[in-house]
Design a protein that fits this description.
Length: 319
């Protein structure tokens, strides 16, 4: 300090935002605002989703399980021998586990953005399957799908159940299917896909009587607060789910109950009452639209199986 100069106190400067924080900020400043659905899955979000799959209204999980129970042997025959089973968005790994007996993989590679949840699931599996090699990978595979070199290139099966492919916009879904195709040339893909059906069935599945889906959607704001340092108050927001038949998708939004200003280090956004943040799309397919998508992504020898009501389909395709 120079003699006689008054001491100056600098206001603390906000830290520069990391890539994830920039993505969140850009989405919040957009019109309309949006948050990528991958941010639904912190530890609590993953647990809430597991609870949702047990709701009477949320049919996809039960329909898919019915397909594997009824047609598992036929599906396994179509797939052939499996060296490594790579489970995209594995969560609690329960779906893959049900197929171990029929597919008999030697190596199981569960991948999930929610790394802690995945590690706990892998620990549980290791106790039940001491002879199975298990390599859990905590990864956001929505951008890139780099697999460790020790996962052999032969007889790879990518397992992408639950219609998670439906949470990607059409261009991103095609890009994802192509990325998988490049990673498993000579192998295959087993993918679950939700089907178009009446709004009266679709909308309650995403807006259930116990409000678990509302909690799942609202929990996103707490996760964003953790990641971005924002000050969302969950009580200011309402869960909205609707079927957009033109786009063939369920949309989830969070709607401001009153005028709200949300601030984070270095920025803020004012939302009017009833203004929405778009938080998820869940696309619904017909067997024809999904077959065409697989063909465009370079797959062949495509077969599919459905539940008795024709609400859900499982596709097996060669890469
Ligand atoms: C994970 N994904 C396939 C679910 C779906 O049905 O789109 C996520 C979900 N969102 C609300 N409920 C469930």
């Amino acid at each position: 300090l120079l003699a006689g100069a008054a001491p100056r106190f600098l206001a603390p400067q906000p830290q520069p935002l990391n890539a994830e924080q920039q993505e969140l900020r850009d989405g919040l400043l957009d019109h309309p605002a949006h948050i990528d659905p991958k941010f639904l899955y912190d530890a609590l979000g993953s647990s809430l989703f597991t609870a949702i799959t047990q709701l009477p209204e949320y049919y996809p999980t039960r329909c898919e399980a019915e397909i594997f129970a009824r047609h598992g042997q036929d599906i396994a025959r179509h797939i052939g021998p499996v060296q490594a089973m790579i489970d995209l968005g594995a969560g609690d790994c329960v779906k893959a586990e049900r197929l171990f007996a029929s597919l008999r993989p030697r190596h199981y590679v569960p991948i999930d953005i929610s790394a802690d949840y995945l590690q706990a699931a892998a620990r549980r599996l290791r106790l039940s399957y001491p002879d199975l090699r298990i390599t859990p990978i905590g990864l956001d595979f929505s951008q890139a799908l780099a697999l460790p070199a020790d996962i052999g290139a032969e007889q790879r099966l990518f397992f992408y159940p639950g219609s998670s492919i439906g949470n990607l916009d059409p261009d991103a879904a095609l890009a994802m299917l192509r990325r998988i195709q490049r990673q498993c040339a000579g192998g295959g893909l087993l993918v679950g896909v939700d089907r178009v059906k009446p709004r009266q069935v679709l909308e309650p599945a995403y807006d259930d009587a116990l409000h678990l889906t509302a909690a799942f959607n609202l929990n996103l704001l707490r996760h964003v607060n953790d990641l971005l340092g924002s000050d969302f108050d969950v009580d200011d927001w309402r869960h909205v789910a609707l079927f957009n038949s033109d786009q063939s998708r369920i949309e989830m939004h969070l709607e401001a109950r009153r005028p709200v200003t949300v601030a984070w280090p270095g920025g803020q956004r004012r939302f009017d009452a009833q203004e929405r943040i778009h938080t998820e799309n869940s696309y619904k397919f017909t067997p024809e639209t999904f077959t065409e998508l697989l063909q465009r992504a370079g797959y062949h020898d495509i077969r599919h199986w459905s539940d008795t009501r024709g609400w859900f389909s499982v596709f097996s395709a060669r890469a």
